[in-house]
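Researcher: Here's a chain I'd like modeled. Treat it as a single chain, no partners, no ligands.
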Amino acid sequence: MRRFRTVLSLAAIASATALLLSGCAAGSTAAPAASGSATGDGFPVTVRSALGNATIEKKPERVATWGWGATDAVLALGIQPVAIPADTYSGGDDKMPPWISDAVDKLGGTKPTILDASAKEIPVEALLKTNPDVLLAPYSGLTQKEYDAVTAAGIPVVAYPDAPWTTPWRDVITITGKALGMSAQADQLLKGLDAQVAKAAAAHPEFAGTSIAYVDDDVDTFYLYLPSDPRVEILQDLGFVSPPSVTALNTGAGTFYTTVSRENLDKIDAQVLFTQAENQSTLDEFLGSSRGSLIPAIKKGAVAAMVGAENVASVSPTALTLPWALPTITEKLAAAVAKAKG
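Model: Modeled as a single isolated chain. Structure tokens:
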């Protein structure tokens, strides 16, 4: 299964992706309800979520994460987590993707326990054995049952503020900073990430106003990602826009994606198509297929594709994948825009 459908099925939460910049061009900032009820970094602090409120009495020392992006935010803030979800897709033998593995090694100390994500639910027993002070899961598919099981053990859980897999990447960092008593550091982290995206956008003025569609082909099912998805947000922050032809195809199948039937593929009328594939042969098959030829951007060759497990995983927005993936993403997009406007 490709990483992106792994997110949809919640089969491998950590390998689910998760760059992000809703802050440069179309900024998204955490609402007070999302980032906490207290001002500053004093404790106790209450962080509200759709599954319940987490009251953190004192600064957490043992931090566990679940979902996508929270691990990256914790590491980027200089804290070694005690437990993180396994990444069986883009991770190596250690079940960690390279950007997380590098950050863990750089921080040193005891490496985190890797929580099995294959059962599609958080392994509560394994989590509790790590004796965490808090569980951070602001961008995840955490269920009410799982939330209740962890909180019943006396562990505050910071879940998503609105709905599963919809928290903007910036909010993931802001919420994490609030929960850890590191709001100022989180703000500085965001400013640094914003600066990287702003620099990339300035270097490519041809991106501004260019329409784009982010898709994932599965032969039997065709996924179209919506503006609410963090992976689409980064494209918008670089200057791209989602055309009405794309948003009009939303069937309400999901909160951050929709499916498109074969007869509607020709309606994906964007200048550039952004996609990914496990390998080059899979990509070539899609681009040369009869279904692919229905999409205008493919006919023109205006396609930016991330190929390979690590590159595919890095497309998703987090505090660590941004500096890791941005150069490759912008290079691919620049070539596709040149085709679209040539």
